[in-house]
Amino acid sequence: MSYLEDYYNSYDEEGRLLSRHGQVEYLTTMKYIRECLSGLSEPNILEVGAGTGRYSVTLAKQGLRVTAVELISHNLELLRAKLDGSEPIRAVQGNALDLSFLPDGAFDLTLLLGPMYHLYTREDKLQALREAVRVTRAGGHILVAYCMNEPTVIQYVFGMNHLREVMDLNMITDDWHCVSEPKDLFELVRTEDIASLDAELPAERIKLVATDGATNYKREYIDAMDDETFAKWIDYHFATCERGDLIGASHHTLDILRKL
Questions:
Q1: Which of 98, 114, 146, 216 has the most C-beta neighbours closer than 10 Å?
Q2: pLDDT digits (tens, 9 = 90+) for 194-242
Q3: Strands 44-48 and 65-70
């Protein structure tokens, strides 16, 4: 956990989501959160790995009932500092691998928007997913975010000239799948890896979404856009973010599941 603590104690995750290019991921995720909440009058929401509260606090300030679980103390402090005490939110420290303090079937919507970035074994990934499904009611939704493999190969390995380094360190397979350890901070997957995990859950996929699509490949252009052009970019992104031929090249994806 020290690698994560060191990273999040110094990294401005909030600033990333507030940047113009980061807004694409945020707005896309919120779009699908609203879709999953449609028709529910008083939904009970859980966010596991709530970070500094970009989603949990926003939803709570809209009057929605939220339980926010976060592993890193520093992030939890920043989350709580945004609250004035009137929001219907419970913020607690906890681990995505063990939600035993939460009852079965208690939540209409469970968000797992960060933990899968930092779980490196299939067993841990399935444990986090099974816990998220367990605490969600039958018919409720689980939204799971992933970091994708191909953008790192394209931008980091080739674009930033790290090919020799990653090959010497055996950080990439013969079929160009990145190999991560906790010290590398982020676990990278492909769409077929996500499908393989889903196959072991008592849940069905509703859709897999590219939450930022091509945005991070052109972040300097996105950040320089005027408001009108950026609005058009969002329109384009929303029109293409569910296209299966593009999803695997997105930096982040959102897997939308419904519990059976």
A1: 146
A2: 999 999 999 999 999 999 999 999 999 999 999 999 999 999 999 999 9
A3: parallel
Distance CA 103, CA 106 (A): 6
For 202, the token pair is 């008592």
Q: What pLDDT, in 10s, does the model give residues 91-144?
A: 999 999 999 999 999 999 999 999 999 999 999 999 999 999 999 999 999 999
Contact call for residues 153 and 178 (beta carbons, < 8 A):
yes
Total domain count, the chain = 1
Share of the chain above pLDDT 90, in %: 90
Q: What is the arithmetic mean of pLDDT over 60-87?
A: 97
Supply the CATH number for residue 122's domain. 3.40.50.150
Task: Determine contact, residues 246/210, Cβ cutoff 8 Å.
Answer: yes
| CA contacts within 13 A on the Cβ side of 177 | 7
Look at residues 136, 43, 144 and name the one whose alpha carbon lies nearest to residue 88: 43
Characterize 218-236 residue by residue with b for buried, 16 or more Cβ atoms within 10 angstroms of its Cβ, and e for exposed: ebeebeeeeeeebeebbee
Give me the helices (H) in the chain, please.
Answer: 2-10, 13-18, 20-37, 56-61, 73-81, 122-134, 149-151, 163-168, 191-198, 219-224, 227-240, 244-247
Record the tokens describing residue 168, joined without a space: 């010497």
Residue 203 host element (H or E): strand 203-210
Which residues, at least 6 apart from 100, have a Cβ–Cβ distance to it below 8 Å?
none
Domain range enclosing 74: 2-147+185-259
CB 180 within 8 A of CB 186: yes
| CA–CA dist 99, 129 (Å, integer) | 11
Please state the φ and ψ torsions of residue 85, each to the nearest 5 degrees.
95, -10
